[in-house]
Write a structure and sequence with these properties.
heterodimer, A: about 260 residues, alpha/beta, 7-stranded mixed β-sheet, B: about 170 residues, mainly alpha
């Protein structure tokens, strides 16, 4: 029951349908700019904003900026919102999916870099990482870096692949990866566990250095008590993801 | 076991069993969830009504005060019930998440189709039914709080459709 991609923009003949996913929660001030940024750097892509139960004008602003908008009836958490985007992409048969955060900390220019890597089959998932770049990095605090470093070591150890920034929400995925994550994706703090899910599904992940901006607006959602919860929950979920019986949808199923 | 304690245990476990069966009969408790509750009530009832069994097990486990075994059994079953409830809750959480996601996907599809239909109507396919269309438009989007299909994106969808149709005709 695969349907045609919506493809609201006019495609060049050789261009495969591509979707940009932007999960957004109360980002009315930045969302339009992020949508326009994505549009200007990936003009052939459809842009999908998933409004994760915002109480402000995020959905209306996103619509005005020309995005397709899905509104979740209540807050599902970032993972639930992103998974909604994966389901949309899978259902409407998009070949490639890019994901950007709505707060403006990602540079849309990097999207074409990541998309290129996936399109040239260097990997099933390309992730923009913030630590391997020469430019100074002002967007992250010390503690967050420490936590990220720890989880990166864990992910490298468990998957046997190099990992440096496991919290990055700047990603580009091909169809196999989208199908895998549409079937199973953690609901909150999904990025670390997601790496394990991809690994167990036999999908290749490639990290590419990018620069992240300080947040334009608002603070990080991770406050000290939440940080403790975050570390414990993600640690448990990550280790469990290694041994979970749920068969992850792998490349075997989508090959054809 | 002091007779008062025994009477209390027998009566309360019996009461529990009757209440559980009543809830099942009323359809307010599903059998699969009631099973652990029934086992709890039944084992406490047996242990308190049949004094010999309680003292025998207590002696076997070197429990000095036999009625405390009743508490132990009750506690273990309570833990099991709580665990089972958390498992059910986890399943329900993923179900509601799936439903919420599905709802948002379908809502978008409905809006998309409505707008297309409206456009086809406006394009003159059903000129004769003009007033009816107006009315159906009013009823199809009942509350102003609901997200209305945005024109800009749908304009683009239609433009794309138009472009495709032109390609086909050429």
């Amino acid at each position: 029951m695969a349907r045609q991609a919506i493809q609201t923009t006019l495609l060049g003949p050789a261009q495969a349908p591509c979707l940009v996913i932007i999960p957004a929660l109360n980002e009315e001030h930045t969302i339009a700019e992020v949508v326009q940024g994505a549009r200007s750097h990936l003009p052939f892509a459809d842009i999908l904003v998933i409004d994760d139960g915002s109480r402000d004008n995020t959905a209306a602003e996103a619509r005005r900026a020309g995005a397709i908008v899905l509104r979740l009836p209540y807050n599902l958490g970032i993972g639930g919102a992103v998974q909604t985007g994966f389901k949309f992409a899978h259902r409407h048969s998009y070949e490639y999916v890019a994901r950007v955060d709505a707060d403006g900390q990602h540079d849309p220019r990097d999207l074409s870099l990541l998309l290129g890597a996936v399109q040239h089959q260097e990997a099933d998932v390309a992730i923009g990482t913030r630590f391997e770049h020469a430019l100074p990095d002002r967007a992250t605090s010390f503690l967050r870096r420490l936590g990220t470093w720890g989880f990166a070591r864990l992910v490298s150890f468990l998957t046997g692949q190099p990992a440096s920034d496991t919290t990055s929400g700047l990603q580009c995925l091909n169809r196999s990866a989208v199908e895998c994550l549409a079937a199973y994706y953690p609901q909150d703090y999904p990025e670390v566990e997601g790496r394990i899910v991809l690994h167990r599904a036999g999908l290749r992940v490639l990290e590419m250095p990018v620069v992240m901006h300080p947040r334009n607006n608002g603070r990080s959602s991770i406050t000290p008590p939440r940080a403790v919860y975050y570390v414990v929950k993600v640690l448990l979920a990550t280790l469990m993801a290694m041994v979970r019986e749920t068969p992850y949808v792998g490349r075997g199923l989508d090959a054809a | 076991m002091p007779p008062k304690v025994q009477a209390l245990a027998v009566l309360s476990s019996l009461g529990l069993l009757v209440f559980i069966l009543y809830l099942i009969r009323k359809g307010r408790l599903r059998e699969e969830h009631a099973l652990l509750w029934l086992m709890t009530g039944f084992s406490i009832f047996v242990l308190s009504a049949w004094r010999g069994s309680l003292t025998a097990i207590a002696r076997m486990l070197d429990i000095g005060y036999a009625p405390s075994l009743l508490f132990a059994v009750g506690f273990v079953f309570t833990l099991l019930i709580l665990l089972a409830q958390t498992a059910v809750m986890s399943r329900l959480t993923s179900h509601t998440r799936d439903l919420a996601q599905e709802l948002s996907l379908l809502e978008w599809q409905v809006q998309n189709l409505e707008a297309r239909l409206r456009r086809q109507t406006e394009a003159g396919t059903y000129h004769d039914h003009g007033p009816k269309t107006d009315r159906s438009e009013q009823t199809s989007i009942p509350s102003s709080a609901q997200a209305r299909p945005d024109d800009s994106i749908l304009d683009i969808v239609d433009r794309k459709d138009g472009a495709l149709e032109e390609e086909v005709t050429q």
